[in-house]
Automatic annotation (TrEMBL):
Keyword Transmembrane in annotation: yes
PANTHER family: BLR3904 PROTEIN, FERRICHROME IRON RECEPTOR-RELATED
Keywords carried by this UniProt record: Cell outer membrane, Membrane, Receptor, TonB box, Transmembrane, Transmembrane beta strand, Transport
Topology relative to the membrane: Multi-pass membrane protein
Species per Swiss-Prot/TrEMBL record: Acetobacter fallax
Source organism superkingdom: Bacteria
Domain TonB-dependent receptor plug: 82-182
Xref: PROSITE patterns: TONB_DEPENDENT_REC_3 (PS52016)
Name by which UniProt lists this protein: TonB-dependent receptor
SUPFAM superfamilies on file: Porins
Main location: membrane
Length: 759
């Protein structure tokens, strides 16, 4: 064997050893292109032929313009960029998060049309950040860098580089669980160079927030990044509601300039807040329930009591390694370990109807009706683990190019619950002037209230992107999941169990008639077995909860996507546009009561949904100084396969949604170069009224949401100052709702000032 051949073999062995040796968390992103490929790269084929090495959090060069088509997805098993993915993906980039001072995930997602919430979320409520995408449940479909974000808590953006919403069933990428789409948060990672940033914000309702970000390059190949945050505030226009959070994140990067790289990331987030479960829905003369604050109750009225609390503590440890073994083969592996704890108790208002409604509408002050016995209380402790090992091969068979990805995805989550037992708790509030302070009632978490649920999912996946000609490519993906969930109580008896084995396929045709544009058609299918949401369920009931039961054979939900769309770039890729038409057919849609328990008593264990619509986005720079982020969606949803509600409008599906944010750099017009940069920005968010859910009876109606927002900022060398004004019209908006029971009002007009420094 020649010396050069031996060197190549030795190098290959070393890279394989490193890739498998750091098995506590290997992983990364798409590899380099086939260096032997001499064909011209196509816009729709960048994952195959663009020779770019990247690390987590990096974006393509033209992404700096704000063209989110160029956003690189930090999910190794998916195509490289938004442009390459034949499915609707909304991106909230770092620039938009900073300009809007969006401090929580739900604030950032206000820029994405077609997302709604159930009562409790957003202000730190019972289910934390749990969203609906196009009216379909996304309770546990939360990811960071492509790995499951286990646990139930309010997520802060202090360690987020960007947020992506992948719309439509995506089981071929993410496995059992998602039916409407997934939300992925790209975390901040260490990079080459050194930077030091600190921001201090002061806002309405005594908001006080600080956030620091330090990146330190230790050597050419090693860097360390540290982020920290504290946030203390009362929630504006909501009496006695607070949102306090503290967090730290550390990322160590090794191999920044090498073909084998490793990121080790630890993130901690602690919350200590007073939760807001909203206000009652009131039944009016037409028989429809609507939020009572839209019919005479002061918007700041809340029923939070002094013994209510939402305390959470979440730790994530993630390790990711990527190794280019050869020019044509790359090995990746991601691993995450999560430990989470939460203690929660909230007051649960219920609806006002009959004599209660008549008394209130005549100026009276009726007694408040309660749901869930006055409010649930529980202590939660759990942990989750996930590992994804994947190989990517790029090669040719004749004139056809292949980009094959195959691997195994294993995840497990275990959740312990202790349900609270109250002593001397008095439920005696009235609707107009509720009592806040009570002598401390007793709360214990007895062993008799113990519940345990767990879920295991083993998935095998394979995809092939086939480039037939420069203009035509085919993309096929298949995943097989073996899912099992179990459930037990402290009362004895056998452990309950459910199993489900399913395929999640998808197929796409992509045609690029010109370099600037591509057209695609996609079909995708996902499954959601009972028990996938054990970390996010409010209660694990032995008889009706969304948990395993030996006596019942719960068929998984199934969701099918049909989507036709186009993605195009303009002005030398500074501006990107997308247009899509879609239909999602979901069968067996489980829904839940106010305790979070699965509704029973129906023959098919649920109902169906058919969601149709269209979506349009325009993002990037129109001129050198003018930038825009905008999107619009139209949705029409129907209930199907229901014995009592077929033909009704699907709940939590607003027909019209839009979000627009535009900024203009005034520096060239108003300032000399020695006076820094001056920028103004503003926009609006709108969602039309919709039927509250998840109940499908169409008996509770939510009004439209509208918010007009703006900001002005000035930067001079290392220093910056900004001022934000939100909901300038002081419109009464709602964060979330739950059927005919309750709704959570949002803040009215608020202001936020920020000062920062960077070196």
């Amino acid at each position: 064997m020649s010396h050069s051949a031996w060197s190549v073999l030795k190098t290959t062995k070393v890279r394989l050893a490193v890739a498998f040796g750091v098995s506590v968390g290997i992983g990364a992103t798409d590899g380099e292109a086939d260096a032997q490929d001499t064909q011209q790269p196509l816009p729709s084929d960048s994952a195959i032929s663009l020779p770019a090495v990247r690390v987590h959090g990096q974006t393509a060069p033209d992404a700096g313009s704000g063209n989110t088509n160029s956003q690189i997805l930090n999910i190794s098993r998916m195509p490289a960029t938004v442009r390459d993915t034949p499915q609707t993906i909304n991106v909230i980039p770092q620039e938009l998060i900073k300009e809007q001072r969006a401090f929580t995930l739900d604030q950032a997602l206000a820029n994405v049309p077609g997302i709604t919430l159930s009562t409790g979320e957003g202000n730190g409520g019972l289910n934390g950040d749990q969203f609906r995408i196009r009216g379909l449940q996304a309770r546990q479909d939360m990811y960071t860098d492509g790995l499951k974000d286990f646990g139930t808590y309010t997520r802060d953006t202090f360690n987020m580089e960007s947020v992506q919403v992948i719309k439509g069933p995506s089981g071929e990428y993410f496995g059992a669980g998602n039916v409407g789409g997934v939300i992925n948060q790209s975390l901040k990672h260490a990079h080459s160079g050194e930077s030091y940033d600190y921001d201090q914000a002061f806002g309405s309702a005594s908001q006080f927030r600080g956030a620091g970000d330090i990146n330190y390059q230790i050597s050419n190949d090693v860097a360390l990044r540290v982020n920290g945050m504290y946030n203390r505030q009362n929630v504006a226009d909501r009496d006695h509601v607070t949102a306090n959070r503290y967090g730290t994140a550390v990322d160590l990067a090794v191999g920044l300039q090498s073909k084998t790289s490793w990121h080790l990331t630890w993130q901690w987030l602690n919350g200590d807040s007073k939760p807001d479960y909203g206000v009652p829905m009131i039944q009016l003369a037409d028989g429809i329930y609507r939020p009572i604050t839209s019919h005479g109750l002061a918007r700041n009225t809340s029923y939070t009591r002094n013994f209510d609390r939402d305390r959470s503590d979440v730790h994530n440890l993630t390790s990711a390694v990527k190794s280019e073994i050869t020019r044509w083969f790359t090995l990746t592996n991601d691993t995450r370990l999560t430990k989470y704890e939460r203690e929660y108790t909230a007051t649960t208002p219920s609806s006002c109807s009959g004599s209660c409604a008549a008394q209130f509408l005549n100026g009276g002050n009726p007694a408040l009706a309660y749901g869930a016995g006055g409010g649930a209380a529980y202590r939660q402790k759990g942990w989750g683990a996930q590992n994804i090992l994947m190989g990517q091969a790029r090669f040719k068979t004749g004139f056809i190019k292949h980009d094959i990805k195959a691997g195994v995805d294993v995840n497990y989550v275990n959740d312990d619950r202790y349900y609270g037992s109250w002593a001397h708790r008095v439920n005696n509030q009235t609707i107009r002037d509720p009592q806040y302070a009570y002598a401390n009632p007793g709360l214990t978490f007895p062993r008799s209230g113990f519940r345990n649920a767990d879920a295991t999912d083993v998935g095998l996946f394979f995809s092939d992107r086939i480039q037939i000609t420069k203009k035509l490519s085919l993309f096929g993906t298949a995943r097989w999941d073996a899912f099992k969930s179990t459930y037990a109580t402290d009362t004895g008896g056998s452990r309950q169990q459910q199993k489900s084995d399913r395929w999640s396929p998808s197929g796409s045709i992509v045609y690029s008639p010109v370099e600037m544009a591509s057209f695609y058609f996609t079909f995708a299918r996902s499954y959601k077995p009972v028990g996938t949401d054990v970390a996010s369920m409010v209660t694990n009931s032995a008889t009706t909860g969304e948990v395993a039961q030996n006596s019942k054979n719960f068929s998984p939900q199934r969701s099918d996507l049909f989507e036709f769309g186009s993605k195009a770039d303009f002005f030398q890729k500074r501006l990107g546009a997308t247009l899509s038409f879609f239909q999602i057919n979901e069968s067996n849609s489980f829904y839940y009561d106010e305790n979070g328990d699965l509704i029973t008593g129906f023959a098919d264990q649920g109902s169906g949904r058919r969601i149709r619509g269209a979506e349009l986005t325009l993002n990037g720079k129109i001129t050198k100084n003018w930038q825009i982020f905008s999107s619009y969606s139209y949705m029409d949803g129907k209930v199907t396969n229901s014995a009592t509600a077929s033909g009704n409008e699907a709940p939590q599906v607003p027909h019209n949604n839009f979000s627009v944010w535009t900024s203009y750099d005034l520096t060239d017009r108003l300032l000399s170069k020695d006076w820094g940069r001056l920028k103004v920005a503003g926009g609006a968010q709108y969602a039309s009224g919709y039927w509250a859910g998840p109940d499908v009876s169409n008996t509770a109606r939510m009004p439209y949401n509208f918010s007009l927002n703006g900001t002005v900022s000035w930067e001079l060398k290392h220093y910056r100052v900004s001022f934000n004004a939100n909901n300038l019209t002081d419109h009464l908006n709602y964060a979330s709702s739950f059927s005919s029971g309750r709704a959570v009002p949002l803040s009215g007009r608020t202001f936020l000032g920020n000062v920062g420094v960077s070196f």
